[in-house]
Prior knowledge:
Elements: E1 6-8, E2 13-20, E3 24-31, E4 36-40, H1 45-55, E5 58-63, H2 69-72, H3 75-82, E6 86-89, E7 101-103, E8 108-111, E9 114-120, E10 129-133, E11 138-142, E12 145-146, E13 149-150, H4 158-169, E14 176-179, H5 184-194, H6 199-213, E15 221-222, H7 223-229, H8 238-246, H9 255-270
Parallel strand pairs: 4-5, 5-6, 6-7, 11-14
Antiparallel strand pairs: 1-2, 2-3, 3-4, 8-9, 9-10, 10-11, 12-13, 14-15
Helix pairs in contact: 4-9, 5-6
Fe (iii) ion binds next to helix 2.
Amino acid sequence: MLAPFWHSWDMGFSIDLLPASADNYIYLVSDVALGLAMVVDPGDADVVKRALQKKDLHLALILNTHHHSDHTAGNAKLQHDYGAPIIGPSKEAHRIEGISRSVDEGDFVTFSDLRGHVIETPGHTMGSLSYYFPELKALFSGDTLFSLGCGRLFEGNGAQMWSSLLKLRALPDDTQIYCGHEYTERNAGFALMLDKDNEALKARAEEVAALRKKGLPTLPVSLAQEKAINPFLRVDDPAFQKMLQKNGFPTDVDPAAIFGSLRAAKDRFTK
Ligand code: ZN
Ligand code: FE
């Protein structure tokens, strides 16, 4: 089960995508030489324990992007069994039981030789964080940035989410996005409705359909690709604004406002 979802680097790290519950991904980052692992958003402790046992790894660190239970429900059991500290957003520390260290914008988290940058990305929740690991070229974006989509606005507003996405969009083009859910196929339907003649988008939608048919993940995905075809990263792109206008969206307003109406339309689309 683990083998097809495995990405490794010459320097001896690997990232496993662990599917959990209906459509979550838990990410396991391992230092193969040391036999140590870090986990991002363990919504299910048993899924993580099985992977650790199979790969003969000790869990050294738990990272949470936000407080929702599908990202944190495995925290307590893993902390109990491995003594691993839990790092999460300081703005949500009171909602994450057993949190060991709370972090904010500009802080660093370390695992083995790796140094992850903490980026505050509010919108989905008020304290949502993303973690960027330059050595891995990996962004753990939680429920903020998805492939071809973005998180729902449960706590924040459109302007907050738009400025969060701008921060992520400014990362290097070769950044690989590891997000919290397998929503890509559904997101592709909405994106295509707005921009049906976009060849790059059509190609990605076909690739996604083929992967899902085989039960394979559509992640990670490069930021360069998302910048070209994710509608939520393109509300300030004049070419995409033309497509929005054709679809009846007001576009003579600032990008944050365009973003707000696009996000609202997506909520209705998915219902
Ligand atoms: Zn969430
Ligand atoms: Fe979630």
